[in-house]
Amino acid sequence: MASPRNFRLTTASARELVRAMERACNRRDVESVVSRCSECSRWRGRHASLCGREAIRAYLQRGWARQLDATTVKQLWAWTEQRIAVRFDAEWRNGDGDWFRTRGAELWEFNDEGLLSQRYLSASDIPIDASERRLDPQLEQD
User: Fold this and answer.
1) Are 56 and 33 in contact (CB under 8 A)?
2) Alpha carbon distance 99, 126 (integer Å)
3) Contact assessment for residue 107 and residue 95, using Cβ atoms and an 8 Å cutoff
């Protein structure tokens, strides 16, 4: 017999989860992101197919070491009781000083304990001039 689902998203809790993940990304807080993942969390996207907290931790550390001066804005797109769809924009520069805007969507699924069990990413990196930056790293985005 299947166990009853305990975790249920509401509009408020979905918005707070998106905001918490945005803050963690902007602060480069790997542990905050990883602590929201289940032990066997699966992440898919771009060239990555990850399984488990250690793989996710290493993936975030590598990516954030490469994406310098990054600012990310995440927006709740849609949600159900255990899933969230997020759209996002990020701006960052590489080690050569070239700027990029990354636009994409993430799909998140949570287990009965409220931990992220699956994350799917679709994103595109667009080269931009520094003068084309739109995201202000000093502002808290709503």
Assistant:
1) yes
2) 9
3) no
Identify whether the C-beta of residue 43 lies closer than 8 Å to the C-beta of residue 121. Answer: yes
Mean pLDDT by 10 residues, the chain (142 residues): 72 97 97 97 93 97 96 97 97 97 98 97 97 79 46
Lookup result for tokens 């990354």: 102
User: What is the Cα–Cα distance from 67 to 75, expressed in whole angstroms?
Assistant: 20
Q: Which residue has the tokens 């931990």?
A: 115
Could you give the CA distance from residue 84 to residue 129 in angstroms, rounded to a whole number? 32
Task: Report whether CATH 3.30.360.10 matches the domain 11-132.
Answer: no
DSSP string, 42-110: EEEETTEEEESHHHHHHHHHHHHHHSEEEEEEEEEEEE-SSEEEEEEEEEEE-TTS-EEEEEEEEEEEE
